[in-house]
Structures are given as C-alpha cells and as structure tokens.
Design brief:
alpha/beta, Aspartate Aminotransferase, domain 2, Aspartate Aminotransferase, domain 1, 2 domains, 5-stranded mixed β-sheet, binds ligand 4LM
Length: about 400
C-alpha cells in the first residue's frame, strides 16, 4: 500500500493488497460469491464482527476492497463503499441517512435519476425535499427546517455545468449539524476533492471517468470509517446494490490511467469549447474553462481544471438542433460521459427527462441544451466533426431564410 501524497501514484498503488501466494503484479480477481470458513465458530465470529475476514461478496470482497481503498485514498477520505451503479451509490448514501419525516435539500439541477430518486421515490417513503439554486449558499440556509438532515449537490452540475462553492455549502451544513453529500462524478478526485472543503460524503458514478472505458456501470461512496460502516451495514447490506468483483477489477485497471486521461479530457475540451464559443451558430457555451463562464473563478482553486463535459445551445430551432446531432460522425449519440469515445446527447429528452419541462426550466436546463462528453480522440478531428455538422446547419438555415 502506498503512502504517497501524489494522486498519480495513489491511482496505481493505493489500497493494494499484496498477493503473498503468487506475487501477481495485476490485482487478483476474486470472482466468488462466498468465502469458506475454517469451522462453524469462525463463521459465527465473522458475522458477529469479532473476527476480520470475508463472508459473502454482497458484504465485501478482496478485489472490491482494493477499489474502495484506492478511491478513498485519492479523495483524501478514510474509507469507501463500492456499489453496483452510480445510482446505487447515491441511493445508499441517502437511504442510510434519511428516514420518514426527514427533509433533504438538493440542488435544483442534478442528474435526472438522482432527481427522480429524491423527488419521486423518497417522497413515497415520507421524506420531504426542497430543491434550491445552490449557486447562492444563502438559498440553502433559507431552506433549512428543523427536520433537515442532508444537503445534496453536484459540481459542476449535470447538465448545465454551473459550479457551486463547496466551502460555502459545507459551512452551512456544519453550522446546522447537517450531513453534506457531493457527487464528484464530473471532476473525479484528480481535479476536485470535496473533503478538503469540509464535505462529509462523496459519491461517484464510477461508470464514468473512474473506469473510463465505457464497459462497466458502477459507483462508489467515500467518507469517514464510521459513515461508511453505517452505509455498508444498512442500505448496502440489506438493499444490496453492491458491485460485482469483476467490475471492481475493471475499474482498478482503468484508474491507473485516470490522471493522464483527465489531463487529455481537459485539454481537448478546452479546445472544443473555444471553437464552439467562436462559432457564429453557437449562441451559448457552458464550460468552466472559458473565462466567460461564471464558474471560471473556481479553476485553480476548488477545481484544478474544468473537466471534459461541455454544454451548449445553438442558434436554431429544436428540429434543426436534432439534425445537428444526427449529422455528427465521430461523436456517438449516447448518454453517459467520461469514456475514451466522444459522446453527444440531448438532456431534456434523455438524461434529464425525469424532470417535467417546468421543473427543468426552473432548474436552468433549457430544452435546446446539447451536452457533449469530450473523449480522448485528437482534438482537431473532434473540431472538424463539429464544424462539418455546423456547416450543414448553416446551409439549411440559409435555404430556409431564402
Ligand atoms: C449521464 N449520468 O449523465 P450510473 N451521478 C451523476 C451522473 O451523471 C450519473 C449518475 C450519478 C448519466 C448516465 C446516463 C453526476 C449518470 C448515475 O448511471 O447509475 O452509474 O450513475 O449521461
């Protein structure tokens, strides 16, 4: 196990359990559902928590354990709980810390299924929610009630890339003794470590950059030893959204290149965002790496760089926007993000369709917003692809105007 403070070294070595038996360099994959006890008494001791050791892969697995400790180390946190999906992480973190009669304050714009979980599912179990614009932390303070237990947000926000002030949010949470949870999927610990600003729990969709190869759905929660033990012993143990050891193994492999992948995602996205901003048919670009963006002031402070996701609006109607997406050749039309392949999607009809149109507009997610995840291809090829589709759009607009 490494004690390095450098994230590039941690991404390769942190949490490693040495293979004493064979000396395997690569992480051994313990593809097993259950673990054999020496005798019945040992089984009883493990269930009672009197002896360390694995019992059953829903409760823990040696491959999964290495992933948990690696990501927790990278986040600068004590412990981690790996989950079957990012939503498994969000739901376990919330369900373990809320009960009927409690109140949660969420950012008004968040990933569509997180919104559905909080606004639709939790409501069925008597948990009340307020959705506020967290770009001003005073709005959070104003929404606090006697029964508020959790503050939840993402930054930058999916899909509109608004950046939130983590220190200001943690301050409100601490003042009122409320648990703060931040979804760090968009930036990863390479670019942002929410714990540094006093955030209690960090969740991820590991499906995205952490794995980075588009072949796994998974999630992870990082926090203090006590909080992770609580989540594992309640929501994860009894609801069961635990990760497959094989998926944990793939993410451990992907993580080794996370720091260098993030560097390329960011430099590619910066070039693409600058191209889009300069194009006459692009009316608005949302990317914190641009000096025109309200979140730009956080670069080099809260976040090392702006990440690989860009949102933008075109100067055209919705069907022309749809045509623009369809004409792209290198960008695949697909939801998700953080893969080597560049992706394009339409939040209003895809990732954020759990919002009603009214809720979406109130949350600052316009119907014409297009979101791209900039991959690891050559940036000139990506810009050429966007350019050819924009040129076709210009042609159509010209014909229509004539
Ligand atoms: C997408 N996102 O946006 P799983 N948290 C954030 C996310 O963006 C997502 C999840 C959690 C997209 C998926 C289709 C900030 C997902 C949920 O999909 O359950 O691993 O993560 O395109």
């Amino acid at each position: 196990m490494t004690t390095s403070k450098h994230i590039e070294t941690q991404a390769i070595h942190a949490g490693r359990i040495n293979d004493e038996q064979f000396g395997s360099l690569a992480t051994p994959l313990y593809q097993t559902s259950t673990f054999i006890f020496d005798d019945a008494a040992q089984g009883a001791r493990r269930f009672a928590g009197e002896e360390e050791g694995f019992i059953y892969s829903r409760l823990g697995n040696p491959t999964t354990r290495q992933l948990e400790m690696r990501v927790a180390t990278m986040e600068g946190m004590d412990d981690g709980a790996a989950t079957a999906t990012g939503m498994g992480a969000v739901s376990a973190a919330l369900l373990a810390n809320l009960q009927a009669g409690d109140h949660i304050i969420s950012s008004n714009a968040i990933y569509g299924c997180s919104y559905a979980l909080i606004n639709h599912m939790l409501a069925r179990f008597g948990i009340e929610a307020s959705f506020v614009d967290m770009s001003n932390a005073d709005n959070i303070d104003a929404a606090i009630k006697e029964n508020t237990k959790v503050i939840f947000c993402e930054t930058p926000i999916n899909p509109n890339l608004v950046v939130l002030d983590l220190a200001a949010i943690a301050k409100v949470a601490q003042k009122h003794g409320i648990l703060s949870i931040v979804d760090n999927t968009f930036l990863t610990p390479v670019l942002q470590q929410p714990a540094q600003y006093g955030i209690d729990l960090v969740v991820h969709s590991a499906t995205k950059y952490l794995n980075g190869h588009g072949d796994v759905v998974a999630g992870i929660i990082c926090g203090s030893r006590e909080m992770i033990a609580h989540i594992k012993g309640t929501a994860l143990k009894d609801i069961g959204a635990t990760i497959s050891p094989h998926d944990a193994w793939l993410i451990l492999r992907g993580l080794k290149t996370l720091p260098i992948r993030m560097e390329r995602h960011c430099s590619n996205a910066q070039k693409v965002a600058e191209f889009l901003e300069a194009h006459p048919l692009v009316s608005q670009v949302y990317y914190p790496g641009l000096s025109s963006h309200s979140g730009h002031k956080f670069i080099g402070k809260q976040m090392k760089a702006a990440g690989g996701v860009i949102a933008f609006e075109l100067d055209c109607n919705l069907s022309q926007g749809e045509r623009f997406i369809n004409q792209l050749k290198l960008f695949s039309i697909a939801v998700s993000l953080g893969d080597a392949e560049s992706l394009v999607q339409h939040p209003a009809s895809m990732t954020h369709s759990p919002y009603s149109q009214e809720e979406r507009l109130a949350a600052g997610i316009s119907d014409s917003l297009i979101r791209i995840s900039v991959g690891l291809e050559n940036s000139e090829d990506l810009i050429d692809d966007l350019e050819q589709s924009l040129a076709q759009l210009a042609q159509i607009k010209k014909i229509k105007a004539a």
